[in-house]
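TL;DR need C-alpha coordinates for one chain.
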Amino acid sequence: MNMKENSFGFSAESLGAGTFRAAYNIQYSYVSGSMYKGISSYEMVIRMGLGGMLGFFGTGGLDFSEIESGIQAIQSRLNGGESYGVNLIHSPGMPLLENASVDLFLSYGVKVLEASAFMQITPAVVKYRLLGLRRDSNGVVHGDHRIIAKVSRPEVASAFLHPAPENIVNQLLASKQITEDQAMMAKEVPVANDICVEADSGGHTDMGIATVLVPTIKRLKDEICKAQNYKHLVHLGAAGGIGTPEAAAAMFVLGADFIVTGSINQCTIESGASDEVKSLLQDINVQDTAYAPAGDMFEMGARVQVMKLGTFFPARANKLYELWKNHNSLEEIDAKTIKQIEAKYFKRSIDEVYAETKAFYLKVMPYEIEKAEKSPKHKMALIFRWYFIHSNRVARAGDDSDRINYQVHTGPALGAFNQWVKGTELEDWRNRQVDEIGRKIMQETAIYMEHSLAH
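>> reply
TL;DR here they are.
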Protein backbone atom coordinates (compact mmCIF):
# COMPACT_ATOMS: atom_id res chain seq x y z
CA MET A 1 0.00 0.00 0.00
CA ASN A 2 1.34 3.46 -0.87
CA MET A 3 1.03 5.25 2.45
CA LYS A 4 0.84 8.66 0.78
CA GLU A 5 -2.28 7.63 -1.09
CA ASN A 6 -4.17 5.80 1.63
CA SER A 7 -7.53 6.99 2.82
CA PHE A 8 -6.31 8.48 6.11
CA GLY A 9 -3.10 10.00 4.78
CA PHE A 10 -0.76 8.27 7.22
CA SER A 11 2.90 7.93 6.30
CA ALA A 12 6.12 7.44 8.21
CA GLU A 13 6.96 11.08 7.50
CA SER A 14 3.59 12.50 8.61
CA LEU A 15 3.31 10.89 12.07
CA GLY A 16 3.80 13.30 14.95
CA ALA A 17 4.09 17.06 14.65
CA GLY A 18 5.32 18.74 11.48
CA THR A 19 6.37 21.74 13.58
CA PHE A 20 8.68 19.48 15.61
CA ARG A 21 10.29 18.14 12.44
CA ALA A 22 10.72 21.66 11.09
CA ALA A 23 12.25 22.92 14.33
CA TYR A 24 14.93 20.22 14.29
CA ASN A 25 15.27 19.91 10.50
CA ILE A 26 14.41 16.20 10.45
CA GLN A 27 12.27 14.00 8.22
CA TYR A 28 10.67 11.82 10.91
CA SER A 29 9.27 12.59 14.37
CA TYR A 30 11.62 9.96 15.72
CA VAL A 31 14.50 10.41 18.17
CA SER A 32 17.10 8.02 19.58
CA GLY A 33 17.66 8.96 23.21
CA SER A 34 20.99 9.07 24.97
CA MET A 35 22.44 6.08 26.77
CA TYR A 36 25.12 6.25 29.45
CA LYS A 37 28.86 6.01 28.73
CA GLY A 38 28.57 6.34 25.00
CA ILE A 39 26.26 3.36 24.46
CA SER A 40 24.43 5.84 22.23
CA SER A 41 27.68 6.41 20.38
CA TYR A 42 28.74 9.15 18.02
CA GLU A 43 28.39 6.56 15.22
CA MET A 44 24.74 6.15 16.21
CA VAL A 45 24.18 9.91 16.19
CA ILE A 46 25.78 10.25 12.75
CA ARG A 47 23.68 7.42 11.32
CA MET A 48 20.51 8.99 12.72
CA GLY A 49 21.35 12.43 11.37
CA LEU A 50 22.12 11.15 7.88
CA GLY A 51 18.84 9.20 8.02
CA GLY A 52 16.70 12.27 8.65
CA MET A 53 16.27 11.67 12.38
CA LEU A 54 17.61 13.15 15.61
CA GLY A 55 20.06 11.20 17.76
CA PHE A 56 21.64 12.10 21.10
CA PHE A 57 25.25 11.31 22.01
CA GLY A 58 25.36 9.64 25.46
CA THR A 59 27.98 11.74 27.25
CA GLY A 60 27.09 10.70 30.82
CA GLY A 61 30.02 8.95 32.51
CA LEU A 62 32.51 9.80 29.74
CA ASP A 63 35.57 11.93 30.40
CA PHE A 64 35.85 15.25 28.60
CA SER A 65 38.41 14.01 26.06
CA GLU A 66 35.98 11.25 24.97
CA ILE A 67 33.10 13.74 24.75
CA GLU A 68 35.21 16.18 22.77
CA SER A 69 36.41 13.57 20.26
CA GLY A 70 32.82 12.31 19.87
CA ILE A 71 31.50 15.80 19.10
CA GLN A 72 34.33 16.37 16.63
CA ALA A 73 33.49 13.11 14.84
CA ILE A 74 29.79 14.01 14.67
CA GLN A 75 30.45 17.50 13.35
CA SER A 76 32.88 16.24 10.72
CA ARG A 77 30.17 13.99 9.23
CA LEU A 78 27.01 16.02 9.91
CA ASN A 79 28.18 19.18 8.22
CA GLY A 80 25.28 19.71 5.82
CA GLY A 81 22.69 20.95 8.29
CA GLU A 82 21.72 17.49 9.59
CA SER A 83 20.42 17.34 13.13
CA TYR A 84 22.21 15.99 16.21
CA GLY A 85 22.30 16.54 19.94
CA VAL A 86 24.26 15.68 23.06
CA ASN A 87 23.15 14.66 26.52
CA LEU A 88 23.53 16.70 29.69
CA ILE A 89 22.89 14.46 32.67
CA HIS A 90 22.10 15.96 36.06
CA SER A 91 24.97 15.56 38.52
CA PRO A 92 23.53 16.05 42.04
CA GLY A 93 26.05 17.76 44.27
CA MET A 94 28.45 18.41 41.38
CA PRO A 95 27.39 21.73 39.81
CA LEU A 96 30.92 22.39 38.56
CA LEU A 97 30.75 19.26 36.39
CA GLU A 98 27.43 20.34 34.88
CA ASN A 99 28.75 23.83 34.19
CA ALA A 100 31.99 22.54 32.65
CA SER A 101 29.95 20.23 30.40
CA VAL A 102 27.80 23.13 29.20
CA ASP A 103 30.91 25.24 28.56
CA LEU A 104 32.35 22.42 26.46
CA PHE A 105 29.13 22.10 24.44
CA LEU A 106 29.00 25.85 23.91
CA SER A 107 32.62 25.94 22.75
CA TYR A 108 31.72 23.49 19.99
CA GLY A 109 28.51 25.27 19.03
CA VAL A 110 26.23 22.38 20.02
CA LYS A 111 22.67 23.55 19.31
CA VAL A 112 20.56 20.76 20.90
CA LEU A 113 20.77 19.30 24.40
CA GLU A 114 18.86 16.44 25.97
CA ALA A 115 18.56 17.26 29.69
CA SER A 116 18.04 14.03 31.61
CA ALA A 117 17.67 12.91 35.24
CA PHE A 118 17.09 16.48 36.45
CA MET A 119 15.05 16.87 39.62
CA GLN A 120 15.24 20.65 39.59
CA ILE A 121 16.43 23.46 37.33
CA THR A 122 20.15 24.19 37.68
CA PRO A 123 22.30 27.17 36.65
CA ALA A 124 24.07 25.12 33.96
CA VAL A 125 20.80 24.38 32.13
CA VAL A 126 19.60 27.99 32.40
CA LYS A 127 22.94 29.32 31.19
CA TYR A 128 22.84 27.16 28.06
CA ARG A 129 19.26 28.18 27.28
CA LEU A 130 19.72 31.92 27.86
CA LEU A 131 22.98 32.29 25.96
CA GLY A 132 21.10 31.29 22.82
CA LEU A 133 18.29 33.86 23.15
CA ARG A 134 17.76 36.70 20.70
CA ARG A 135 14.88 39.03 19.82
CA ASP A 136 13.72 39.50 16.21
CA SER A 137 12.59 42.74 14.56
CA ASN A 138 9.02 42.10 15.78
CA GLY A 139 10.17 41.72 19.38
CA VAL A 140 9.63 37.95 19.52
CA VAL A 141 12.23 35.98 21.48
CA HIS A 142 13.89 33.05 19.71
CA GLY A 143 16.30 30.47 21.08
CA ASP A 144 19.29 29.21 19.11
CA HIS A 145 20.08 26.67 21.84
CA ARG A 146 17.36 24.03 22.05
CA ILE A 147 16.69 21.83 25.09
CA ILE A 148 14.58 18.68 25.14
CA ALA A 149 14.00 17.82 28.79
CA LYS A 150 13.29 14.22 29.74
CA VAL A 151 10.77 14.16 32.59
CA SER A 152 8.93 11.44 34.48
CA ARG A 153 7.09 13.54 37.08
CA PRO A 154 4.64 16.42 36.69
CA GLU A 155 6.53 18.69 39.12
CA VAL A 156 9.75 18.34 37.10
CA ALA A 157 7.82 18.91 33.86
CA SER A 158 6.31 22.04 35.39
CA ALA A 159 9.75 23.40 36.29
CA PHE A 160 11.01 22.98 32.72
CA LEU A 161 7.80 24.42 31.26
CA HIS A 162 8.04 27.66 33.25
CA PRO A 163 10.55 30.46 32.67
CA ALA A 164 13.90 30.07 34.41
CA PRO A 165 13.81 30.74 38.18
CA GLU A 166 14.52 34.40 38.89
CA ASN A 167 17.17 33.65 41.51
CA ILE A 168 19.22 31.59 39.02
CA VAL A 169 18.87 34.25 36.32
CA ASN A 170 20.03 36.92 38.78
CA GLN A 171 22.94 34.74 39.87
CA LEU A 172 24.09 34.29 36.26
CA LEU A 173 23.68 38.01 35.60
CA ALA A 174 25.64 38.98 38.71
CA SER A 175 28.52 36.70 37.66
CA LYS A 176 28.37 38.18 34.12
CA GLN A 177 27.67 34.82 32.49
CA ILE A 178 24.64 36.32 30.71
CA THR A 179 23.67 39.83 29.61
CA GLU A 180 20.90 42.06 30.92
CA ASP A 181 19.00 41.57 27.66
CA GLN A 182 19.19 37.80 28.05
CA ALA A 183 17.97 38.09 31.64
CA MET A 184 14.96 40.07 30.44
CA MET A 185 14.22 37.64 27.59
CA ALA A 186 14.33 34.73 30.07
CA LYS A 187 10.93 35.80 31.36
CA GLU A 188 9.30 35.13 27.98
CA VAL A 189 10.38 31.54 27.28
CA PRO A 190 10.27 28.20 29.12
CA VAL A 191 13.50 26.57 30.29
CA ALA A 192 12.97 23.71 27.82
CA ASN A 193 11.91 24.15 24.21
CA ASP A 194 10.28 20.71 24.30
CA ILE A 195 9.75 17.96 26.86
CA CYS A 196 9.81 14.19 26.60
CA VAL A 197 7.73 12.09 28.99
CA GLU A 198 9.81 9.11 30.06
CA ALA A 199 7.80 6.13 31.28
CA ASP A 200 9.37 2.94 32.66
CA SER A 201 12.61 2.44 30.73
CA GLY A 202 16.03 0.85 30.75
CA GLY A 203 18.55 2.34 33.15
CA HIS A 204 17.40 4.95 35.69
CA THR A 205 13.64 4.76 35.99
CA ASP A 206 10.74 5.96 38.11
CA MET A 207 8.76 2.99 36.76
CA GLY A 208 6.01 5.27 35.43
CA ILE A 209 3.16 4.08 33.22
CA ALA A 210 3.02 5.75 29.79
CA THR A 211 -0.77 5.77 29.54
CA VAL A 212 -0.91 7.63 32.85
CA LEU A 213 2.01 10.00 32.40
CA VAL A 214 1.64 11.15 28.79
CA PRO A 215 -1.94 12.54 28.97
CA THR A 216 -1.36 14.00 32.44
CA ILE A 217 1.80 15.87 31.48
CA LYS A 218 0.33 16.87 28.10
CA ARG A 219 -2.59 18.49 29.91
CA LEU A 220 -0.17 20.23 32.28
CA LYS A 221 1.92 21.47 29.34
CA ASP A 222 -1.09 22.90 27.55
CA GLU A 223 -2.29 24.70 30.69
CA ILE A 224 1.11 26.24 31.46
CA CYS A 225 1.79 27.30 27.86
CA LYS A 226 -1.61 28.96 27.63
CA ALA A 227 -1.14 30.78 30.94
CA GLN A 228 2.36 31.95 29.97
CA ASN A 229 1.24 32.96 26.46
CA TYR A 230 4.40 31.59 24.84
CA LYS A 231 5.00 32.56 21.21
CA HIS A 232 6.45 29.17 20.24
CA LEU A 233 4.94 25.70 20.50
CA VAL A 234 6.33 23.40 23.18
CA HIS A 235 6.29 19.86 21.82
CA LEU A 236 5.64 16.72 23.85
CA GLY A 237 7.54 13.49 23.25
CA ALA A 238 7.06 10.00 24.63
CA ALA A 239 9.77 7.53 25.67
CA GLY A 240 9.95 4.27 27.56
CA GLY A 241 8.60 0.94 26.40
CA ILE A 242 8.61 1.74 22.68
CA GLY A 243 9.90 -1.22 20.69
CA THR A 244 7.08 -2.10 18.30
CA PRO A 245 4.74 -0.28 15.88
CA GLU A 246 1.80 -0.90 18.21
CA ALA A 247 3.59 0.83 21.10
CA ALA A 248 4.61 3.75 18.87
CA ALA A 249 1.02 4.08 17.60
CA ALA A 250 -0.27 4.19 21.17
CA MET A 251 2.02 7.13 21.98
CA PHE A 252 0.94 9.09 18.90
CA VAL A 253 -2.72 8.44 19.73
CA LEU A 254 -2.09 9.68 23.29
CA GLY A 255 -0.89 12.97 21.80
CA ALA A 256 2.86 12.62 21.45
CA ASP A 257 4.42 14.97 18.90
CA PHE A 258 7.46 12.71 18.63
CA ILE A 259 8.69 9.40 20.03
CA VAL A 260 12.03 8.50 21.60
CA THR A 261 13.53 5.01 21.59
CA GLY A 262 16.38 3.72 23.74
CA SER A 263 16.76 0.04 24.59
CA ILE A 264 16.16 -1.16 21.02
CA ASN A 265 19.08 0.96 19.79
CA GLN A 266 21.43 -0.64 22.29
CA CYS A 267 21.41 -3.84 20.25
CA THR A 268 22.55 -2.39 16.91
CA ILE A 269 25.75 -2.22 14.91
CA GLU A 270 26.30 1.43 15.92
CA SER A 271 25.74 0.90 19.65
CA GLY A 272 28.70 1.38 21.97
CA ALA A 273 27.83 -1.83 23.86
CA SER A 274 30.24 -4.76 23.54
CA ASP A 275 29.53 -7.53 21.03
CA GLU A 276 29.13 -9.97 23.92
CA VAL A 277 26.41 -7.82 25.47
CA LYS A 278 24.63 -7.36 22.13
CA SER A 279 24.56 -11.14 21.63
CA LEU A 280 22.88 -11.53 25.01
CA LEU A 281 20.45 -8.68 24.39
CA GLN A 282 19.20 -10.00 21.05
CA ASP A 283 17.81 -13.06 22.86
CA ILE A 284 15.93 -11.39 25.72
CA ASN A 285 12.15 -11.46 25.97
CA VAL A 286 9.82 -9.00 27.70
CA GLN A 287 10.21 -10.76 31.07
CA ASP A 288 14.01 -10.77 31.07
CA THR A 289 14.65 -7.49 32.92
CA ALA A 290 14.72 -6.63 36.61
CA TYR A 291 15.17 -3.63 38.89
CA ALA A 292 18.36 -2.99 40.84
CA PRO A 293 19.84 -0.15 42.89
CA ALA A 294 21.51 2.64 40.92
CA GLY A 295 25.21 2.67 41.73
CA ASP A 296 25.59 6.43 41.26
CA MET A 297 22.72 7.13 43.67
CA PHE A 298 23.17 4.07 45.89
CA GLU A 299 22.28 5.63 49.23
CA MET A 300 19.28 7.47 47.78
CA GLY A 301 17.59 4.20 46.84
CA ALA A 302 17.24 5.15 43.17
CA ARG A 303 16.58 2.24 40.81
CA VAL A 304 17.76 1.12 37.39
CA GLN A 305 16.23 -1.45 35.07
CA VAL A 306 18.71 -4.05 33.84
CA MET A 307 18.98 -7.31 31.92
CA LYS A 308 18.62 -10.35 34.17
CA LEU A 309 19.05 -13.07 31.54
CA GLY A 310 22.44 -14.75 31.98
CA THR A 311 23.64 -12.53 34.84
CA PHE A 312 23.44 -12.48 38.63
CA PHE A 313 23.90 -8.73 38.77
CA PRO A 314 20.33 -7.75 39.77
CA ALA A 315 20.19 -10.25 42.64
CA ARG A 316 23.68 -9.38 43.88
CA ALA A 317 23.13 -5.61 43.60
CA ASN A 318 19.89 -5.85 45.59
CA LYS A 319 21.66 -8.00 48.19
CA LEU A 320 24.36 -5.37 48.66
CA TYR A 321 21.78 -2.63 49.06
CA GLU A 322 19.87 -4.63 51.68
CA LEU A 323 23.10 -5.30 53.60
CA TRP A 324 23.97 -1.61 53.56
CA LYS A 325 20.47 -0.59 54.62
CA ASN A 326 20.35 -3.05 57.53
CA HIS A 327 23.89 -2.66 58.90
CA ASN A 328 25.93 0.24 60.16
CA SER A 329 29.32 -1.17 59.22
CA LEU A 330 30.99 -4.06 57.42
CA GLU A 331 31.96 -5.45 60.80
CA GLU A 332 28.29 -6.08 61.59
CA ILE A 333 27.92 -8.41 58.58
CA ASP A 334 28.58 -12.09 59.31
CA ALA A 335 31.87 -13.59 58.10
CA LYS A 336 30.22 -16.10 55.74
CA THR A 337 28.45 -13.33 53.81
CA ILE A 338 31.61 -11.24 53.61
CA LYS A 339 33.50 -14.24 52.20
CA GLN A 340 30.79 -14.80 49.59
CA ILE A 341 30.92 -11.15 48.52
CA GLU A 342 34.69 -11.24 48.18
CA ALA A 343 34.75 -14.55 46.27
CA LYS A 344 31.66 -14.23 44.03
CA TYR A 345 30.87 -10.53 43.69
CA PHE A 346 34.21 -8.73 43.95
CA LYS A 347 36.67 -11.54 43.14
CA ARG A 348 39.10 -9.75 45.45
CA SER A 349 39.27 -8.76 49.09
CA ILE A 350 37.34 -5.94 50.73
CA ASP A 351 40.68 -4.30 51.55
CA GLU A 352 41.72 -4.37 47.87
CA VAL A 353 38.42 -2.84 46.82
CA TYR A 354 38.73 -0.06 49.38
CA ALA A 355 42.32 0.68 48.35
CA GLU A 356 41.21 1.12 44.72
CA THR A 357 38.19 3.18 45.78
CA LYS A 358 40.28 5.38 48.05
CA ALA A 359 42.86 6.05 45.34
CA PHE A 360 40.12 7.15 42.95
CA TYR A 361 38.24 9.43 45.34
CA LEU A 362 41.39 11.08 46.70
CA LYS A 363 41.99 12.40 43.17
CA VAL A 364 38.49 13.67 42.41
CA MET A 365 36.47 13.97 45.63
CA PRO A 366 38.77 13.65 48.69
CA TYR A 367 35.94 14.70 51.01
CA GLU A 368 34.26 11.34 50.32
CA ILE A 369 37.24 9.53 51.88
CA GLU A 370 37.31 11.95 54.82
CA LYS A 371 33.66 11.11 55.41
CA ALA A 372 34.28 7.38 55.00
CA GLU A 373 37.09 7.39 57.57
CA LYS A 374 34.66 8.90 60.08
CA SER A 375 31.54 6.96 59.09
CA PRO A 376 31.75 3.15 58.77
CA LYS A 377 28.36 3.11 57.02
CA HIS A 378 29.56 5.55 54.38
CA LYS A 379 32.73 3.50 53.94
CA MET A 380 30.55 0.43 53.37
CA ALA A 381 28.54 2.36 50.76
CA LEU A 382 31.68 3.37 48.85
CA ILE A 383 32.93 -0.23 48.87
CA PHE A 384 29.59 -1.59 47.68
CA ARG A 385 29.41 1.11 45.01
CA TRP A 386 32.63 -0.32 43.59
CA TYR A 387 30.69 -3.43 42.52
CA PHE A 388 28.40 -1.29 40.35
CA ILE A 389 31.38 0.36 38.66
CA HIS A 390 33.04 -3.03 38.17
CA SER A 391 29.92 -4.72 36.77
CA ASN A 392 29.44 -1.90 34.29
CA ARG A 393 33.11 -1.98 33.32
CA VAL A 394 33.22 -5.73 32.57
CA ALA A 395 30.02 -5.49 30.51
CA ARG A 396 31.39 -2.61 28.45
CA ALA A 397 34.62 -4.52 27.89
CA GLY A 398 32.78 -7.74 27.03
CA ASP A 399 34.88 -9.60 29.63
CA ASP A 400 33.63 -13.13 29.10
CA SER A 401 35.33 -14.40 32.26
CA ASP A 402 33.02 -12.27 34.42
CA ARG A 403 29.82 -12.42 32.37
CA ILE A 404 27.83 -13.46 35.43
CA ASN A 405 28.35 -9.96 36.87
CA TYR A 406 27.43 -7.93 33.77
CA GLN A 407 25.39 -4.82 34.53
CA VAL A 408 23.43 -3.99 31.37
CA HIS A 409 20.80 -1.26 31.46
CA THR A 410 17.85 -2.15 29.27
CA GLY A 411 14.06 -2.33 29.28
CA PRO A 412 11.40 -4.78 28.12
CA ALA A 413 10.89 -2.76 24.91
CA LEU A 414 13.90 -4.62 23.54
CA GLY A 415 12.27 -7.95 24.35
CA ALA A 416 9.16 -6.84 22.47
CA PHE A 417 11.30 -5.71 19.53
CA ASN A 418 13.14 -9.05 19.48
CA GLN A 419 9.84 -10.91 19.26
CA TRP A 420 8.57 -8.59 16.53
CA VAL A 421 11.60 -9.16 14.27
CA LYS A 422 11.99 -12.86 15.04
CA GLY A 423 12.39 -14.87 11.85
CA THR A 424 13.49 -11.82 9.83
CA GLU A 425 17.01 -10.67 9.00
CA LEU A 426 16.77 -8.21 11.91
CA GLU A 427 16.76 -11.11 14.37
CA ASP A 428 20.58 -10.94 14.31
CA TRP A 429 21.91 -7.70 15.83
CA ARG A 430 24.65 -7.65 13.20
CA ASN A 431 21.95 -6.71 10.69
CA ARG A 432 20.41 -3.99 12.85
CA GLN A 433 21.22 -0.40 11.97
CA VAL A 434 19.71 2.32 14.09
CA ASP A 435 18.26 4.45 11.27
CA GLU A 436 16.78 1.45 9.46
CA ILE A 437 15.08 0.38 12.69
CA GLY A 438 13.66 3.89 13.05
CA ARG A 439 12.28 3.95 9.54
CA LYS A 440 10.83 0.45 9.85
CA ILE A 441 9.05 1.33 13.10
CA MET A 442 7.62 4.54 11.64
CA GLN A 443 6.53 2.85 8.40
CA GLU A 444 4.89 -0.06 10.19
CA THR A 445 3.27 2.31 12.70
CA ALA A 446 1.64 4.22 9.85
CA ILE A 447 0.33 0.96 8.35
CA TYR A 448 -0.91 -0.23 11.75
CA MET A 449 -2.76 3.02 12.41
CA GLU A 450 -4.29 2.94 8.93
CA HIS A 451 -5.56 -0.60 9.41
CA SER A 452 -6.80 0.10 12.93
CA LEU A 453 -8.87 3.07 11.82
CA ALA A 454 -10.16 1.22 8.77
CA HIS A 455 -11.56 -1.48 11.02
